[in-house]
Structure formats: C-alpha cells, structure tokens
Write a structure and sequence with these properties.
Chain lengths: 286, 286, 286, 286, 286, 286
C-alpha cells in the first residue's frame, strides 16, 4: 500500500513518523475539570490538529518553513478524568520523559492547570527557568473553590516553585485585587498590553532557559471566542504576533498553548490561531 | 416596589418564595468533571430554568397543574470545581439537610455521578430504597480511567450500597460486556426498551420508597441531542412519557435528571425536555 | 441576456414569473411580535424558499409533479414592525386581494397570529368555512399578557368568527386547563395524536370549503427544532404526512404553515419540512 | 437550610438580597417587537446574568470592587408581548417607581425603544437631563414602517422631549441621509469614532444629571456579534472602554445597555461585554 | 517513551497499528464537489473518528466486541480537490490495492459519488457482486447539471456496470419521476420503508458477494441532521439497526457510509451514528 | 395586486426591476468545488442578499445613496456542480454578455477561482486591464492537488494573462515560499497591510480600466469568520474601508467579492460585510 496517498487529519501537519528523530514533540493534555465557567478545553488539542491542515507550513514573516523542523505528534495523554491531581502527575511524568529524551515539548491544553506539572518537570532540569505567561488572568490565587489544584492557582504555584522574580506576566487584565497586588509586588507584571514587556524580557532572559505559556484568552474575545472565560478589552492578534516577533530569546525550552475550547467557536478561528502559534513560535525560537 | 411585575427567568416557573413552606425542592448540582467525552452538563440546571418559562404549568395528560404543588428552587450548589470527591460530599450534605427538613429533592445534574451522594443520603433515611434508573449506559464499572468516582461507576456504587436487587436498570443499550453481565446477573435489567419493565416495577415497588434517576441519554439523540455521550437507537419521547404514565408507585421519595448538556443543542430541546420531566413526574408522583 | 441561466435561490422553486397566470400564490407574513418565548419566525418564509431548491418537485407518494401546478411567489409582506393590529390589517387586505383575484393563498408565517386576519378574509368569501388546525397548542386564550392580538388567542378569535363547531383542533398537547375545557366542549378537539381525527374530518368536510393551518410545533421537537415554543411528546413526520395522505377533502381553499423559526435550527430541517409541506399539500389538494 | 451554599446563576453576581438597601437596581426590559431585522434582544438581560458569574467583581483599571456597591437585581419586567406602546408604559412606570425610591436604574434591553419610556421617567425628575448615546445608528427617524413607536425613532422622540441640544450622539455610522442631517444640525453629533466627543461632553455635562444609553452595536460586529443589526466598521472594545475611562461626569443618574441578542453569538461574548459594562460603569460613575 | 499513555482522538478507536495484520481497512474519501445543495461531507470521515472515542467497542445486541476484529485506519485519501473524475480514479486505485491485499474496505464519504469508483474496483474482483443501497434518493439520473460524474448519477452508473438486477434500493423516497420509473422497472426497488426488502435480500444474496452502501440521509433528518440534502419522512435509527440485524448475508465484501456532513450538526449525532454503523455492521458481517 | 407591499428578501435591496435599464449588474457564482479546506462559499451570494435588507442604502461617509444608482440583481448562475472547468466557461460567457450589454458586473462568489473566467472576459474587452487583489493568499500556485483549475492558482493564471505587472496584490500574508518569491519578483506585492499600496495604485491606475477582486479572508477572522480558510493576523474592517476611501481610480470596470461562506458564521457578520462592500464600492467608484 502506498501510504503517502493518505493523510491523517488528526496528526499535526508536517509531523514526522519517528519519535526518535524528532527535536520537538507536540502533545495534548486534555484536562478541563477545574475550570469555573465553561468546560470544553479538553478538545483543544483535538481541534488544533485538523485546523493545521488548512495552514501553510511556510511563514512569510520569518521566511522559514516547518519542513525545516523535525517534530513528532504524540497525540493526547490518557488522563484520569475528573481527578486533577492524578492527571497532573501523568502530565509531569510525560514531560519529564520528553525532556530526558532531549526533546522540546510543545503542549496544547486543556486548561491552564496543565502548566503546573509541566513547570515542575522543567524546573527539575532547568533550576534557573524563566517563565513568560501571556494571559488575561494572573492565576495567582492561593486556592479556588477550596481546591489548591485549579486553573486559578496555577501561576501562584509556579511562582512559588521558580521564584516570582522569574515569572513575567503579560497582558493580565482580570482578577481579584489580591492577585494584582501580588503580581505588582512580586512578579514582573505587565497588565493590559504586551509592548511594555518586550525590552525587559529581552534583557532579563539573556542566556537563560525560557518557557512560554500562552493562555489563549490573552486575546480579545473577538480574536479567540473559543475559550472558557471570555475577557473583553484584550489584545489583538496583530499585537500578539508582533510581541513574539520582537522577542530575542536565546533558549526557549518549551511552550504551551492552553484554554482553547472549540465548542463555542463555530468558525474554529481559535483553533486556527492555536496552530499558527505553533508555526510562528517554533520557527522563531526552535 | 411592586415585585410581581418582574420575574426571574432563572428561577423555575411557579416556584414559591419560601423554602419553609415547600414540599418539594428543586436544586442543581453542576458537576461535570468525570465525564469521558464532552463536558457541559454543569450548565444543565441553568438551562432548564429559563426553558421552564415557555412551559405550561398545566398537564393535560394528568389534568393537574403545578399550581397545586409547593416547590422551592434552591439554585445551584457551589461545588469544588475539579474535585469529584469533595463535590460529592457537598451534594450529600445538601440532600441530607433537605431530607431532614422533610422535603422531596428534585435534582438536576450535572453528570450522573451526582446520583451517588444523593443515594447515600437517601439510603440513610430509607434503608429499603428502590432505585429506578433510566439510562443508555449501565454505569456499572468498578473503576473508570483509574478513578472510583466517575459517571461510569455510579450505579455500581449505588448497587453495592442498596443491594443490586433493589436496582431497576431500564433502557440500557451501551457498555462493556462486563457491565451487561453484571446487570443481567444481579440487577433488574431491562435493556433497550422501557415497556417490559413496567409490570415488574409496579409489583416490586408496592409500598416501598422509590427513587428515580433519569439520564437524559436514555432518549435517542434525536430527542435529546444536548448530552455528553450520544447513543443511537434509544427510546422516543413518547415511549419515555408513556413509561411514566404507566408506573404505579406508592411513594416516590426523590428524582434526579442528569447529563443535560446545553452547549451542543442550539434549540435547547433537551433542556425543554428536562423541565417537562419535572412537571409530569411531580404531578404524577408528588 | 439569457435569464434562464440564472436562478433566485430564495424564490420558491418552480414558481412562475407571472402573477396573473398563477392559480396558487405563495407569500410570507413575517410577523413574530407577540410570541412569548423565542422570536425568529419572521424569517420563516425566508428560510423555506432557499430550502426548496434542494427539494425534488416530484412527489413519489402522489405521483404528481409541481410542474403540473401554476404558482407565483409574491415574496414577503412589508409589515408595521412591532404593531400586531396594524400588521394584521395588512395581511387581511393582501389575502382579500388574492381571493378576489381567484387564487389560492399558501402563506408562510410568521407566528400563528397571522391566521386570524387570513381567516377574516376567507370568512368573507366562504361563510361556511371549516378550519383544520394542526398544533401543539390550542391557542384558545381570551387574552395573553393583556393583549387580545396574540399567537395564544388566535384560534379563540377564529372559533368565535366561524363558529367553534367549524374548527377541528388536532394534535393539541399543551395549554392551560381552560383551553382544554373550551376545546373539549366547543370545538372538534383531538389532543395528542392525529389519526383519530381523520374519519370525522372526512365526513364533516364533505362539500365544504376547508382551510388548513399548520403550526409546525405539532411535530415533536426532534422533527422541527426550529420553532419558538418547543413541546415534547409530539407527532413524528411520518404521522403528519400519513394524516394528510388520508384526508379526503373536496375543496381546500387555503393553507398556512406557521412558527418556523430558523435561528435555532442549524441544519434547517424545519425549513425543509416547510417546503415539503407545500409540495405534498399542493399536489394533494390543489 | 444554609442558603449560602447555593447560588442563582441567572441573578447578577454580587447583587444583594434586599431591594430596600440597594442604591442601584438592575432590571431587564425584554422587548424586541419593533426591530426591523433579527429579533432576540428579549433575551438580552437573561443572557447577561449567567455571564456575570464568570466575571471578576474587581476592576483592576479602576481599582474598585463591586463589593463596594449595593445593587439589587429585580429580574425582567413582565411586558405585553407584541404591543410596543403598552410595554413602554410598563417600563416607564417601573423606572418612575425606582426613581421615587431614590435608586439608580441600570436597565438591560431589549431593543433600543426601551430608552424612550426610561427617558420620559427621568425627564420628569431631571428636567435638565443630558443624554449620551453610543450607537451605530442615530435612531432619529420620525416614523418607521408606519409606526412612531420603534427602535428607529427612539432618539428623535427623546431629542424632542429633552431638547436636541441635550443629546450627545457618539459613534453613529449608519442611517438615512435625513438622520445624519438632523443630527449634524440639532444634536451633538460625533459620527464613526468616540474620541472626539470626550472633551465636549466633559465640558457640557459639568454639574448636570447625565443618562447614558449604550446600543451594543456601537461596537464593531467582531466585538459584539450578538445584536440585531450588524454594522461593520465600528469601534473596538478598547476604544469603548477608554472612552468611558476618559469621561468626567459629576452625576450619572442612570444607564441602559440595549440590543444584546444572544441567539446569534455562540460564544456569548456580547453578553460578557454587557456585564463588563455594568462593572466598569457602575464602579466609575456610582 | 511509553506510547500507550497517548491516544489519537481522530484515529478510529480500536484500530491496530499495522496495516499488514489488518483484515479490515477504514478509510475516508473526502470528496464533496458534485453535491447540489450543501457541501461539507468532505469532513465526514474526520468527524466520525473522534466520535468513535465516545463509543463502547462492545455491541450488546450482537454480544461481540471490536477487540475481536483487526482493522487499520488508513486516514483520508488525498484527492484532487474540485475534479470529480480525477478523484474517482484515485479512489478506485486505492480500493483495488486494498482488495489486492485481501482486506475489506470500510469507506466513509464524502458524497455518494465515491461509491462509483469503489464499485468499479469491486466489480473487477467480484463480477457477480450484489449492491445493497440504503438511501433517501435513488441517484439514478443519467446526468445532473450537465455532468455524468455526480452524486445524483452514481447508482445509474453502478446499475449499468453490475446489472440493475443486482442492485437493491431500499428506503428511497425522493427523486424525479424518471428515477422512480427506472427503479421500479429495473432494480429491486423498495421505497420509503426498509422492512419489506429483508426477505428478498436474504433469498437473493445467498452465496453471493454483497456490497452495502449507506447514504446517511436514508434516516429521517431528526436522526441524521448532518447531511447535505435533508429529506423528511425517513426511517428511524431503530428501523435502520433492526434492518441490519435481520439480514442474513453470507459474504459482505465491503461497506461505505456516505454524505455525513458535520457542519450543520452541532451535537454531531450524525457522526456518532456513522461510527456506530461501523461497530454493528463490522461485528455482524465480518 | 399591489406588488409594492411585498418584497423579496432574496433580491439585493434597492435593485431595479429591469435589466435593460441597469448600469450595474449583481450576480452570484456559486462554485466552491476546488477549495481545499471548508466548503460553503456556494452560499455566499445567497447569504449576502437577505443581509442587504438590514443595511441602509445611504452611505454617510460618501454622502451618496444607492438610490442614485441603477443596478439589477440577476440571481445566481446555474453551474455544473463539481466540474470546475465547465463552470468557469459558464461564468465567462455570462460576464462577456454583461460587458457586451455595457453594464458593470459586481459578482459574489463562490470561491476565488471564479475570478479567472471573469478576468478572461474582461481582458477581451480591456486589454490594458489592471487587477487589484485584496487577499490573505497570493493564489499564485501553478497547480494545486494536481489541478490547474483551483482557487489556489487563480491569480497565477490571471497574472499570466494580463501580465504580472498589471496585478496589485495587497494584504497577502499566507502561502508557500514560491508564491511570495513570485509575487515579490513579478507582481506589485504588498504583503500584510493595505496602506502602503495606496499611492502606488493611485499613480499606476491613472486612466486605466481597473478590476477589483476582494477575497473576504483579507480581513482578520475576527471580522470575517465566515470563510473557508481562516488566516490570523489580518486587516481590520476599518483598515479595509479606509483603503477604499483613499483610492482614486478613474475607471473601475468590475468588482467581485469571494469566499464568503456563511455556514460557520452564526451572526452572518461576513455576509453583512459583503453587502456593505457593494454599497461603499459602488457609491465610490460607479
């Protein structure tokens, strides 16, 4: 059988067949149990993959083509539905294994809580990790509805692990007063807009390993309607891409894109944004 | 201010203002963390309430009117998002309190797991409880994705608590072989159709306290598209209502309707079905 | 220009170019102001026309083809948005004119209130008119939210005009007790199902002019999700068509199909049903 | 029963239990009969309330929290469906009562016509009222489809009542030539963009009672797809919020947000915008 | 890396990793160029695969489990978008190769035209092939909009190739008079309902190789809203499954399911039906 | 019959009754067979017409009213479904006839391939034609999925016919490297943004016949979600309109707007944009 005449719309476009040969690994972490409003991000990665088949592999802005990269699409993790802590353990183990295999993980959520086990795994390997978070919400609560494992606490846990001084929070525009106070006091905190953060990030990250986490709700709902908690007055897609084009980072060691929830997005523009973020960021930083 | 010129589309139509005076209590249990496919049933109760305002309070089949009943709408429980066990505890406590207050709870899910804490509370009060389950799925697994607290294990847990001989499972049409074998061996098991169960139920339940749990997916997806796990070849709405009209039960002590998930149902016909089930069942049995 | 190489997808398929030559006239009455729940039926006729282009003009059941009929599509009436009484006057005048021109009107709603001005115009011409109503609701209220002009009062007004003894109400399954009492007492009242009415109708209507009004919600929501007020436990499409195939009517003088509301029906199956009703009824009765 | 463990997802988040103690009153006016294109705004207020539960009560821009305000959610008015004039009377009476009770009404439409009875009530109490209108349409017609009571005539009626010199029309980008001529000649008219109006408004309104009416279609459809009449080339959400942050008004006496129509907005971003407008405007002006 | 902890949600559940070891092959043929009404069936196979992950692999009716079968999911064919004839060649070649490899193809459309190249490949191998078609439409036109390659001509072409006496057409309810005349005259023609055909099929097919093609629109739109051309008054899902359970066929050599078009089916019930058809038919016939 | 009391929502608002008297002709070319991702643009023109009835005929920016123009709406062409080449011939012939009749065609797609037969017809009449393309994609491939007739090759074919030096490509942001290289080398190529092109176009086009083709995906998906291939990081509606307001063209001889695909756009904002483009461009250039 000539298998090349077939394609899997479920596999990210351009992904190679052999895990061993890959430098980058795409995976999905379909957890959405702790979100407080609309569920659905468990289908985030699933919705990004078929959308990728309508995307050109060439980036005209960067004049590079995904064909120049070697990435493998692992599929979605099998998680313990409904148990956040157990699911976090599975995610942490998978990321640890990928790092051990000397590959760069690019993870699609799921909800933002998945970033917590990812950062735990990264911090093991990179004790001086810098974390850049693009997000409408600071996610700095100490607990949420009585639970420590929550999409609303994830950055507090990360900050406490890597040190809040290693956390850049960009685009934040929603949260309780306590979170804004914590952010302004302890983290690198750039509310509302993205531009102001660029120079600081470029200066601070020189020579350091950097992890980027993108909550898709950093975008205005007009540009990303498919997410669980819509926050008006966000950034435009142009501002988001221009932000990334302006970054100068020596060593990006991992990326995730979370909170894509396709149920509420008939056009699937949010999923399309998700796969474009892979192309532009992978071609820029890897 | 003349408050009667206003209405709350969020409050079930016809509900009274005073909890103390109510015989029946409507409440929502917005848990959907353990579902394996599509989330969204956390908005089940929320979607039923506004739909109730388009429903007549009079049932022509039963020639009774909801005005003859006294029911109070408690709203939705505040749950620990993402933690099934903790949420179950909250539900159990609330139901226990309602039972202590000598009221009949009518609970809207949420996912089917909510029936577990409800039955725990009921079994305390009614040790000889009979449980009638209408469902596409037996939900008799011992564990699911490694978790004991799951929508797929809920009836196994209930069966073990009240004794499988007190469990009627009606309309079941999907599940692994083990569940069908368990059901056929231990519970009153009536797969695929509803009619066959009527006489047996009427005979068995004479004089006993009965709880009814309705997973909306017992209906064919044509009649209830708004649910998490669609199963073709289900029963029609006419068969479902005729089943209830034929039941002769001395003492129905509680009812729940679960797995209404409005995201995927543009017409909201599943939510409309949900509020009609309250009217017909409350007028028939209470 | 060879105009035959073009088509208007929103003109009913097969409609002729010349009003004068037509025996039948299709028109839309886009009024939906008095509906109590979901608006949207103003787009009923608009949604039926494009759907007609996917419909065969041949009816295999009746072995007749729409090509054998001459019908003209007048478009939608320009109504006084938001003023029910003024809009009713416009509808009545238009129907009167069509009747004066010796043509048969086939009207798409809009809400059910449009049937009131239509029947007023028909009653002028046919004092012995028989009215057959297929509907989930009796629409026999004397007033509704303080208004006499309402979708919920329309059949009461018609009954009082033509005499309740000339009104057949078939498929009724929802309404307050008063409406059921009025119906059972005064009109020919066939609740829930259609079959029982056939022989009575055939006997009663012999030699009489008959008008048929179909509220699409007589169908179960599974078969017609695109309507304003969904009522579970309705009739199937097969039952509806078989009802019409069994009728033997000497003189059907007009028909309307109301309450098609396409907003909530992504597949547009309700609009497709609407245009199939034209084909089958026009070929059966005209 | 411990009622604090329950919440009503359709009651505006943070609203207090006692009308008497409230300074601000939220109410819905579910009228959409006179709209010329797509109906549906009758569900505007209903859709805003559940959306409010995903909104933080803290505004980081204003560094204030809704907890600092006392507001009561009255629910939706019971209106005479389909009769615009009667419904307007009901609205006017309710607003008059609220003003008499010395509370500030924050009204969600419904269509824009609701602003007419509101302004009538306000003008009684505040003869020198200034009205600031943000809107894509001037709504300055003298009549519309033969009716004086119409969403398209509402501002003409208001202008004639309070004097066109007391009307600021901002963001207008659509209408017949006559409306633009009237606006340019008689009212304070700022078409297309918002910025230009700020200084004039701040100067003019010094010491005066000001009412703000926001037709959500002032926003570009990208930011507010859920409305009846989409007008391309509108303002962005950032421009809208920045406009309000720049206003310096001594005495805002009431606000309404109209034409939110959730049917056509799967993500409900327009309803989310609606509840954010309450938070930002109430915290800014009350 | 332990790959078993991941899954591809868009690979059919239970499919094995090695083409060589498979007895059955699932593939998609994403062609929808010639459909006359709504396009979208190109995403038919894509939508069935993720839906399969919510399906039990065990069939309680047949008491068999998909684990007992060995099937490989080839993915979707890469077709020449917009060129029906070239695409048909690709499909024919792929099916021929699968047959040469002694495997049974189970193909998801795409539109019904894909059955033409499939039957061409099968007829090469099985000159006495019997074709059973379940469909709302006879698809017996000689040409359609001037084109011979069309979803409306596919069964005419097949009939002429294998002989109309080897074609069973079941459930047909829509088409021009010519098609019904041809069908009644030349093929085994069972319009409207399924039951009547069973005995004839069982008798005729004894010992013969049989191919089954299912146009999902044989179902009533209530049961399969996600298809290009909705035809009211179809069969129910129960009737469809019971039809298959009653067939006694010695040698089913291939199956296709066509015209699933997920765009217009928010709940995806049509795609769920599609994957259930694989389970029940594969377990019954293979 | 007084026909003025009716309107056809299917006919573009304001279109006149007599083809002969028209200066401008609106027509639809419902071809979408060669699109590689989501089909649906065959309903583009169909969706624009009813949307036009919610649009004012007056443009306040241009201070002109559509009443000043004479345009006729021809409806949609009857095309050979599924055969791109044959359909192109039909389109070319229709456009040639319109040009022969000395009228200006304004064509709604359909997919972008329709521009190829249009330009062929125009080039016959205007050998020095300048083509201005607004688009996310260059569409400069030599072939696509093995086919020369494709939405992805259309501009290459046009460039080769009229000379690449007569082609302005504005807003291009997606495509393979080869297309960007060709564009930069041979055509007037203005990627990403629109502003830069204005002066060059105004200078170059002086005195020349100009055709404008607008692929709606030049807009960011936030502003035009209803299209087949979404490309993030596009232009805003304000930028698009301002671009046109700044053009100074002596002789615009024809315009098309393509790739509006209403299926995926619940609010229909893309169709509304489509009819606004007619108003603004016709009033600006005709």
């Amino acid at each position: 059988m000539d298998f090349t005449q077939f394609y899997y719309p479920d596999r990210f476009i351009g992904s190679i067949e052999d895990y061993e040969k890959a430098d980058i690994v795409i995976l999905g972490a379909p957890m959405d149990y702790t979100v407080s409003y609309k569920a659905g991000s468990r289908e985030g990665a699933q919705s990004v993959r078929p959308a990728s088949w309508a995307m050109e592999t060439y980036s005209s802005r960067l004049d590079r083509d995904l064909e120049e990269l070697k990435y493998f699409d692992l599929g979605d993790l099998v998680l313990n539905m409904g148990h956040a802590e157990h699911s976090c353990n599975i995610i942490e183990n998978a990321i640890s294994q990928i790092l051990e295999d000397k590959k760069i993980p690019f993870t699609y959520g799921g909800e933002h809580l998945i970033t917590w086990p990812i950062i735990k795994a990264f911090h093991e390997k990179y004790p001086d990790l810098v974390l850049i978070q693009l997000d409408a919400h600071a996610d700095l609560r100490e607990e949420f509805f009585g639970e420590a494992y929550s999409h609303a606490t994830v950055m507090r846990k990360c900050a406490e692990l890597i040190g809040p001084d290693n956390l850049f929070q960009v685009g934040i525009r929603s949260g309780p007063r306590e979170e804004f106070e914590y952010g302004k006091k302890y983290t690198h905190f750039y509310p509302y807009r993205l531009e102001g953060a660029i120079e600081d990030i470029n200066a601070f990250c020189k020579g350091k390993p950097v992890y980027i986490t993108i909550d898709i709700d950093v975008l205005d709902p007009a540009y990303a309607p498919g997410t669980g908690t819509l926050e008006p007055n966000g950034v435009t897609s142009r501002e988001l891409f221009d932000f990334f084009y302006s970054l100068k980072l020596d060593q990006v060691v991992g990326i995730d894109v979370v909170e894509i929830s396709p149920y509420h997005d008939l056009s699937r523009m949010t999923s399309v944004m998700g796969c474009n973020l892979f192309r532009e960021l992978a071609l820029k930083f890897f």
